[in-house]
Amino acid sequence: MLDCRGKSCPLPVLETKKVLDERPLEELKVVVDNDAARENVGRFLESRGYRVAVERQGEAIFLVGSREKAETGPAMDRRKVVAFIDAETLGRGDEQLGAILMKSFIFTLKEINPLPWRIIFINSGVKLASTDSELLPQLRELENLGVEILSCGTCLDFFHLKERLGSGRVSNMYEILSSLTEATNVLKP
């Protein structure tokens, strides 16, 4: 059992990764004490092919990862395109023009083949996924088409937007870097 209580993001994920990198296990139990760590460790275990069960005992949250059969076939061959958005506007220069270009970029993403696997928002780009964003309908449409929308949790906290996330889910730097590494193509407007 790996005890990650009292550790903040991304340490629980990094410690789980270290254990699995040293020796792949058929089953791994990780204990955390907050929901962000539960979500992040759970997603990481799933990305490594584990089926995850969650058990709560008081303040402790136990994640039990059991190894599943490795996926093969066409799904594994799929290109993974990531759109990496780190600002509210596209390009340098006029902010109004940059906002128009970003709107066009987001709108056009649904037309590319293959669709993006993930859209990652960091820094002021997280504002585009907030409930105040005029791009929210386009992002929700992309989500409905199967595109994952990830927003940096640290960035959402910085801009006081975590409670106003309107599309996708809160992510962390480990998942963001893993996504960029795993991607076959990264689009950076």
Which SSEs are present, and which pair or pack?
Elements: E1 2-3, H1 11-22, E2 27-32, H2 35-47, E3 50-57, E4 60-67, H3 74-77, E5 81-85, H4 95-109, E6 118-121, H5 136-144, E7 148-152, H6 153-158, E8 169-171, H7 173-182, E9 185-187
Parallel strand pairs: 1-2, 5-6, 5-9, 6-7, 7-8
Antiparallel strand pairs: 2-4, 3-4
Strand count: 9
Strand residues, percent: 15-25%
Q: Please, what is the CATH homologous superfamily of the largest domain? A: DsrEFH-like
- The chain-level structural class is alpha/beta
CATH class of the largest domain: Alpha Beta
Rough outline: elongated
Short description:
With 189 residues, the protein is α/β, with parallel strands linked by helices. It is built from seven helices and nine strands, in the order E-H-E-H-E-E-H-E-H-E-H-E-H-E-H-E.
Give an account of the 3D structure:
The chain is an alpha/beta fold. It folds into 2 domains: 2-67, TusA-like domain (Translation Initiation Factor IF3, 2-Layer Sandwich), CATH 3.30.110; 78-187, Hypothetical Protein Ychn, Chain: A (3-Layer(aba) Sandwich). 37% of the residues lie in helices and 23% in strands. The protein has 7 helices and 9 strands. The strands form 2 sheets. The chain has a 5-stranded parallel β-sheet with strand order 8-7-6-5-9. The longest helix is centred in the middle third of the chain and has 15 residues, at 95-109. It is elongated, with a radius of gyration of 18 Å. 32% of the residues are buried.
